[in-house]
Amino acid sequence: MSRRILPLRALALALGGAPLSLAPFMAFAQTAPAPASSAAGAEQERDMPASAATAPAPVMPTAASPSRPETAVPAMNPSGNVDHDSMEGIDHDSMEGMDHDSMEGMDHDSMEGMDHGSMKGMDHGSMKGMDHGSIKGMDHGSMKGLDHGSMQGMKHGAMQRGSPPSGARSPDYSDGIAYGPTHGMGMAMEGDARYGMLLFDQLEAFHGRDGNGQQWDIEGWYGTDYDKLWLRTEGERRSGRLEDASSELLWIHAVAAFWNTQLGVRTDAGEGPDRSWAAFGLQGLAPYWFELEATGYVGPAGRTAARFRAEYELLFTQRLILQPEFEANAYGRSDPARGLGSGVSDMSLGLRLRYEFHRQFAPYVGVVWSRRFGGTADLARQHGQDRFDRQWVAGVRIWF
Known about the structure:
By secondary structure, this protein is mostly beta strands.
């Protein structure tokens, strides 16, 4: 016959009168291990009266136990996951081998105040599919050593595509007009590269008060950026004979950006005896794209002369160009054989409007006003010419 052992709680209720005398046994029961057979205890409780099973247990004094340090338990969020932010004092950086990339579903955007730049050795390029643009407040500039090139699949934003709007300026300001070939011009940037050019600046016919005729202004040069050999000729034919012509052969030497010195010779032909001069001067490109030239001449028997020229090109379009030109001449002494007086002899102002079908070919029309002064004007009247003349011109401009 097996014995039934009443639980200590039921035994305390049965005795009733000595609850304090059972305190040592209760303390021992709380610390003692459970009996090997739990089925008997469960059967005993089923056999107990309902009043005994539901009666409140008396408050028993317990023996003082030695104090132990309390360990903080990580907080649980409503979803049942551990909140790592509440783990104070834990250094995640010291967890070697920890792969943040494998933490699927981890939202870096919610980590406010997190400095990704301080994560040395972290390879952002391996985070495929990560949208850095959604990380508000993130300072990419503080990420030293970050290799943006390794971020495969990263979208930096939509690039501008498509055709430019109608009427947009050409990137090279050419307006779709191709430049002609430059013969002898090397593409090397060295200063000793040799190249040349031949320009028929004015090949025109004119109609004026003093008659009709033709005139020309041709120049060509060959050399380097620093030194060139320059040849220029200009003249006029009127009523079937050569009225005036001059030719210059000059050595051009660069002395500053856009400015050159001139040194050479000049010869005059036409009506009257021929004259020869030693020439020296300065030419260059002034601010606002004015082409200027000032040349002095010294001839035999103390003859001197000077010439000043200025040109400008006003572009209405890439093809339609207006070219104003001003010229003034002066002589140190009169030369009646050639119809020249001393001092300022003449001035002229011309306007030529050309249309460039090609950079190398451009027909033009224009008007030229000329005025004689002093002794030159007096000599002109003796030959039946006016002091003032206006000429309508038409011609072509060609260069090679």
